User: Fold this.
Amino acid sequence: MTRHPRDGSGGVLEARFGNPQGERKPVLLLGHLDTVWPIGTLARMPWRVENGRAFGPGVLDMKAGVVMALEAMRLVREVDVDRPVVLLLSGDEEMGSHHSRELIEEIAKECRAAFVLEPAEGPEGAYKTARKGVGQFRLEIAGVPSHSGVDFGAGHSAVRELAWQIEQISAMTDLDRGTTLNVGVVGGGTQSNVVAAAAWAEIDLRVKTVADAEAVTRKLKGLKARDAQCILRLSGGLNRPPMERTSSTAALFAQAKELAAGLGFALEEAATGGGSDGNFTSALGVPTLDGVGAIGNGAHAENESIRIDSLVTRTALLAAMIVTTV
Ligand SMILES: [Zn+2]
Assistant:
């Protein structure tokens, strides 16, 4: 077991199982230990079990997934099989994996497949075989300030320019292609009697393909100020590349579906708009199944919970995938 300290990120835990000199490449079990909940949340949202469900901050995203990985490894070690496994648990996934990304990618490259311990999709617990890519941009606008009463005509409002730019950015959304741009946070100006000198917006981009990401990024970079006295400055970019449903991921899913049928349940696959560390492994060409963790609801919400009866069969399936993936 090795810890890779990263500044302020809580580090990354790397655990290796099995013979690294074996015939087969390792598989990667990828998870995170951080949650979206601040320290102290347990005091008002305590762990509890009720009507077959377990509640608590982070129970679904993704404490249950981590427990499943450990239990799956216990099962795998009971059978004498040549299969090295790397379990990687990061500490900054919910913040965008800025500190752990490099290590995740470095290790994923040596692996045959990646299983991401994120929550399953929907009440039936589908595996996720596609995820949208996520971009984060910031648009800053510099205008020309003036006194709104004395010298209105000399001013060029950054706030007014921003209002216009928001419409241009929002118009780049293409729901049919699965491309969305959300101007989620804005700011600007100082006083209502001052023509605003500065304004800014934070933009969240979701795309299904790398090509779409590049096309939208080009459009954003090409935004022109409507008021020629205003200056636009765009920063940011694609934070997580899209997890596209590659043929090798589809083949891995077919294998999982067959094993699930043998365990007595029907496994479906799903695509989602949310990103995870699976986006990184998939973009490297590593076959990736995501959402192999628990079934539940309320991730990131007050009612976060898991269905306890989902744990046993899904853990058995994970163990079977670890053993049988050639
Ligand atoms: Zn998560």
Q: What stands out?
A: The chain has a mean pLDDT of 94.
